[in-house]
């Protein structure tokens, strides 16, 4: 047998493997004999196999079996050669097909011939049997565009356009803040007009409800509008920088010096230690050692247990002194009608509180209970001082909203309503009290709270 016959048999074996058909025993034997002849011609010696045969094998003995080890090496050599041939043929055909026909949707299925080529690879475990052969479209790398260097004029124009956009966005934000402030002001007015619910006096304290805070733009300095009235009275109204009224109004020189001194003399007599025995023990709330402040209640008292935790009015205190009712009547007469309409008639005055401060005395930050009608009226006596207002009242480094420190002159009247009465806390800092001073707070209760207070007064009289 010649070399040409062995090459023909080997080619026949390859063609059978490519088409995916089963290799018959005749073709396998023919290919084995051809390979054995080629090895024998080359002078290769076979090694002993599993059956114990060894030595040279003659070309004339066609029926002699090949050793098992030699058969394995032969099949491995044929597999490597066939695999290499199939890869080269498949790649060549795939490139030709991709160049001739356009691809749709980025990929197309291989033709029958390519599938036959790939089937040969599946015979050797290179491709999973049953999966379709798909050719992917070549993706070209995007070309990177070179950025054109902009000139100074173009850069200036671009920066100017960005500044214009930021200015427009800021204007829109300011308009939204103003609208939100107006809505909040109307909501505060509506809430002040509504009558609060008074809890059962024997019931336990309810858990405080969380209050949603509305952000208000920080104000370094508020705007003040001063109006002079006949008789020397000076009215000062406070506004936020965005034009919204804070609800804070002050009147200076509303009392003469003699009137102020007369009221101060009466207050001194009340807080004189030697005269306290004439009053009920519950009339005074003595916190002089802890806060440097003594508080006196007249007409009734509302125990304060923290934000949102107030009890119903108690009637275990002395009646309102006559001079305090006269003082409140003067306020109603002298404050202009535009603001005086918010004050109640002196006959409807329910409770009067007096805070007496010694030097360094303080009042913790708080919001007055809602059972008190608005506005909150404060009359300053003895010396000047300051009232701090804000979410944190300046006690922290960063305020959550506006912070105001309002001067309170001796003999002046300060009224809190709206934003400053319901949304912001207020307090008196110990550092702002340099001398002895006092504040009188006449209060009126809502109808339900007033009914509870006077019912308890009738029970005490019986």
From TrEMBL:
<dbReference type="GO" id="GO:0046872">
    <property type="term" value="F:metal ion binding"/>
</dbReference>
<feature type="region of interest" description="Disordered">
    <location>
        <begin position="87"/>
        <end position="117"/>
    </location>
</feature>
<dbReference type="GO" id="GO:0006397">
    <property type="term" value="P:mRNA processing"/>
</dbReference>
<feature type="region of interest" description="Disordered">
    <location>
        <begin position="140"/>
        <end position="160"/>
    </location>
</feature>
<keyword id="KW-0408">Iron</keyword>
<keyword id="KW-0223">Dioxygenase</keyword>
<feature type="region of interest" description="Disordered">
    <location>
        <begin position="27"/>
        <end position="65"/>
    </location>
</feature>
<comment type="similarity">
    <text>Belongs to the alkB family.</text>
</comment>
<dbReference type="GO" id="GO:0005634">
    <property type="term" value="C:nucleus"/>
</dbReference>
<protein>
    <recommendedName>
        <fullName>Alpha-ketoglutarate-dependent dioxygenase AlkB-like domain-containing protein</fullName>
    </recommendedName>
</protein>
<dbReference type="InterPro" id="IPR037151">
    <property type="entry name" value="AlkB-like_sf"/>
</dbReference>
<feature type="compositionally biased region" description="Low complexity">
    <location>
        <begin position="27"/>
        <end position="43"/>
    </location>
</feature>
<dbReference type="GO" id="GO:0006406">
    <property type="term" value="P:mRNA export from nucleus"/>
</dbReference>
<dbReference type="InterPro" id="IPR032860">
    <property type="entry name" value="ALKBH5"/>
</dbReference>
<dbReference type="GO" id="GO:0035515">
    <property type="term" value="F:oxidative RNA demethylase activity"/>
</dbReference>
<keyword id="KW-0479">Metal-binding</keyword>
<keyword id="KW-0560">Oxidoreductase</keyword>
